Amino acid sequence: MDKINLLGNLFPASEEIPENFRLKAPVHQKQMLINGKLEEWNGPTHTVFSPIYIKNHEPQHEIGSYPIGTTIDAHRSLEAAVVAYNSGRGEWPSMSVKQRIKQVEYFTSLMIARKKDIVNLLIWEIGKSTVDAEKEFDRTVEYIYETIKAVKRLNNRSSAFTIQQNFIGQIKKVPHGVVLCMGPFNYPLNETFTTLIPALIMGNTILFKPPKHGTLLFEPLLEAFKNAFPKGVVNTVYGRGRDIVPFLMQSGKVDVLALIGSSKVADSLKKMHPRSNRLKSILGLDAKNAAIILNDADIDLAVKETIAGALSFNGQRCTALKIIFVHSSIANQFNLRLIEEVEKLIIGMPWTEAVTITPLAEPGKPDYLKQCLDDALAKGATILNQEQGGGTIYRSLMKPSIVYPVNVHMKLYNEEQFGPVIPIVPFEDIETPIDYVIHSPYGQQVSIFSQDINAISLLIDTLAGQVGRINLNSQCQRSPDTFPFNGRKDSAEGTLSVDEALMAFSVDSVVATKQTSQNESLIEEILSANISTRLSNHVIF
Ligand code: G3H
């Protein structure tokens, strides 16, 4: 059987889909959550096709649909969020932190009850392996619990009063206002909730636009949002992003743009806000993280981390290793080991045991990756594992390809491929990878492989001004979620660790007075009368 047919054969016939993972029926999501109501939608819908093709079924497998909302619906969501915030006087922003924590805990319990449905939709909508889809769900729940702990710590720290230069002051964090949350297709649940949950728990009201691929998985959560939060606190926005999101930004009523997506989109959206000084942006954007493998590197370790870094979830991670610089003296050895190990990876459906490579989520991606490969071949590179089928594409499945030697003229040197392609650049002079990182428009992370303390120190000191995180002898990654996750240049704006996300979605509020006995008594009375939510010194356990 030829290589293409081998890939084609991996797609299942209907009866081959394990019982556990079958979608009982397509999910036709016909509701929008606006102002505390699940409104029925009778307008046009977007049909969702799975990247998992079914053998002998033409065309793609339809798994559901969701509303193509209009700017009129988006406007109603926006107004609901503005009214619920009510200049900071709404029920949610003025609720005690303790009560807001309770509501988020309640939401989480409702979310956990729908785990199976959400995980299954992650599998069918974006082709994520069952193991990774479960991990994404569990990591998100863990993130929420860690956020709750962090909010308690923050509350307890900021309940204290500071006395400085005859002033008494209390400094707390208060919400910004209306937050527009948009997550990416590759971690639709996790990355959306790493902005939405901190924004929510700090007292903001939310406009939530799910990603184009990865929308249906939120259907099981609409009821939970409705039941856990006061009306207007969480509102959904559906429809064509290019129409609806500019409309929201141009209204000037969005106070925070929380977007995990492309820098081009973020750039144009920010410019649409009529009062740019009022807009705060929390952005996770493009990245092309490099691995720099020095001549003394442990080759087996570098190969293992390169594979995990470049090919987990088919390379569709913002943190993925997207270009590998290898010292020429070990390039041959490294390449041979890489070919061997890539060949061991299992390609299949999300439920295939120990699978690594699964169908690609974006319909246009296989064609784009083919263009990248053709461009590299035309400019002098080869696909090192071509004999083994590297680079073969059948519908949404692509066998990972190792491309060598990649140079500055190729798309794979400059563009974020976001797929299972490993471009390798040989180098003699350490200035080559350094120059790459310095001149790259992106600055998320880098990985260095070596044991040489001098070389590592030089790279750390040179690159600390270019990227947000430097990984030693390990792949690039976001986790653990308590570490700051950020980026330089066009890769990010703001930092998103569990603690820092709370800062990102809030602003300092200082209550201060001159230290006189009259003012001291005034504050004491307010505290003991327990009549202000803001000026209070409650501790939360
Ligand atoms: O796409 C970006 C994700 O946040 C990746 O998270 O690097 O911990 O897998 P991770």
Polypeptide structure, described:
This protein is of the alpha/beta class. The strands form 8 sheets. The protein has a 7-stranded mixed sheet, sandwiched between helices. Helix 3 runs antiparallel to helix 5, helix 3 (97-113) runs antiparallel to helix 7 and helix 4 crosses helix 5 (130-157). It is globular and about 85 Å long. The N and C termini lie far apart (64 Å). The model has no long low-confidence stretch (mean pLDDT 97). The structure holds glyceraldehyde-3-phosphate.
Features:
single chain; alpha/beta; 17 helices; 39% helix; binds glyceraldehyde-3-phosphate
Outline the low-pLDDT stretches. Answer: none
Helix content: 25-40%
User: What strand order characterises the main sheet?
Assistant: 17-20-21-14-13-23-24
Oligomer: single chain
Broad structural category: alpha/beta
Total number of helical segments?
17
Task: Reconstruct the topology from this structure.
Elements: H1 3-8, E1 27-28, E2 31-34, E3 37-40, E4 45-49, E5 62-67, H2 71-85, H3 97-113, H4 115-126, H5 130-157, E6 162-164, E7 167-175, E8 178-182, H6 188-201, E9 205-209, H7 219-228, E10 234-236, H8 241-250, E11 256-260, H9 263-272, E12 280-284, E13 289-293, H10 299-311, E14 321-327, H11 328-343, E15 346-347, E16 355-357, H12 365-378, E17 382-383, E18 393-394, E19 397-398, E20 401-404, H13 411-414, E21 421-427, H14 431-439, E22 442-443, E23 445-449, H15 453-463, E24 469-472, E25 488-489, E26 492-493, H16 498-504, E27 506-514, H17 517-529
Parallel strand pairs: 1-5, 8-9, 8-11, 9-10, 11-12, 13-14, 13-23, 14-21, 15-16, 20-21, 23-24
Antiparallel strand pairs: 2-3, 4-5, 6-7, 7-27, 12-26, 17-20, 18-19, 22-25
Helix pairs in contact: 2-8, 3-5, 3-7, 4-5, 5-6, 6-16, 10-11
The chain binds glyceraldehyde-3-phosphate.
The site of glyceraldehyde-3-phosphate has 9 residues, from loops.
